[in-house]
Amino acid sequence: MAEQSLVNMSENTGLGKVEIAPEVIEVIAGIAATEVNGLANMRGNFATGVVEKFGKKSHSKGVKVELTENGILVDVYVVLEFGVSIPDVAQKVQANIRQTLKTMTSLDIAEVNVHVVGLQMEKENAEEASE
């Protein structure tokens, strides 16, 4: 797999150049996604789960960024709350990520793909019913 380079942000101002690492885009997209109501959590891998057990929050969990010839592609892997409208929540996640990245970085994102990988049932109601 080819190493991803930095995103060049600078225009010819004579002050120097500004570059953004793909990891920064992942963190911004992850935080923007978690702001949407109806999203239970983000899907990470085993390593992020172990890191979070030790108290370190992984804001880029469940987000993958690719820099391609066609632009920047963002893939988000989410678990939604049971009972929400999946298309509505997914569209809100896409819109919030796109708007937040545009505001913070002035980057135009080619695609924001939302992958719904699970549903979370309500834990509190299930515990109350068993008592």
Set out the fold topology:
Blueprint: E1 7-8, E2 19-20, H1 22-34, E3 39-42, H2 46-53, E4 63-68, E5 71-81, H3 86-105, E6 109-120, H4 123-130
Parallel strand pairs: 5-6
Antiparallel strand pairs: 1-2, 3-5, 4-5
How would you portray this structure in words?
A hairpin with a 2-residue loop joins strand 4 and strand 5. The protein is elongated, with a radius of gyration of 17 Å. It has 131 residues and is of the alpha+beta class. Strands 3, 4, 5 and 6 form a four-stranded mixed β-sheet that branches. It has a two-stranded antiparallel ribbon with strand order 1-2.
Low-confidence stretches: 45-52
**Molecular shape:** elongated
The ordered string of helix (H) and strand (E) elements is EEHEHEEHEH
The first-to-last residue Cα distance is 52 Å
- Please give the largest β-sheet: 4 strands, mixed
Radius of gyration: 17 Å
Count of DSSP E strands? 6
What's the helix count? 4
Compute the average pLDDT.
81
- Helix/strand class: alpha+beta
Binned, the helix content reads 25-40%
